[in-house]
Each structure stands twice: as C-alpha cells, then as structure tokens.
Amino acid sequence: MILARILGNEVSSVQHPSFDGQTVLVCQPVGFDGITPQGKVFLAGDAVQAGEGDLVLCSREGNNARQLLGTKQDPFHAVVLAIVDEVDGPAGVVSGGLPSDRA
Fold this sequence. Notes:
Low-confidence stretches: none
Order of helices and strands: EEEEHEEE
Mean pLDDT: 82
Radius of gyration: 14 Å
Shape: elongated
Number of domains: 1
Number of strands: 7
Structural class: mainly beta
Largest sheet: 5 strands, mixed, barrel
CATH class: Mainly Beta
Number of helices: 1
C-alpha cells in the first residue's frame, strides 16, 4: 500500500480500449506528513472518485487494479483504493486535506 497525494487527472486522446470510461489519476507518493514526496509519480485507475489534492491509499499490484476496476486487459497496474481522512503516524495526526497554507 502506498500513501499518495493526487496531483490531477491524466488525459489522452489515443488510448488502449480498456481505459474507456475510466478516470486515471496522477499520484505522488508522500511521507506520513502527507506532503513530503517519497518516490516517483505514477498513474492509477480511480476506484473511489478521488480528486486533485486528496490524500489517498494506492496499490501498485495489477491484480488488485483489475479486480476493483472490472477490467480484464493488462494496462492497469495501479489503483486508488481509499481517500484518507487522517494519518496517525510519526508526525502526529495529519488530516487528509491539504494544509491551510497550500489549500
């Protein structure tokens, strides 16, 4: 499982047919503080109607993505599983929303 912040949507005019009708989100893995980048940005199918700025829980296992999104083709290898309300970690309790200075 990966804690990530949604940076926006991916838009493409030419795509594999399995992407038709699916929302693909740009995800930035983050630390427990909900802000500090922790790795490379990746694309994930949206199973929970997340939006830009949301703190989410992602899985980068293709089988999870295909089961949740209902696709039988191979292109989906990551999926957004949940929108995070708060994280109780080393940095204390962090709200899932953006900090007030970044909202």
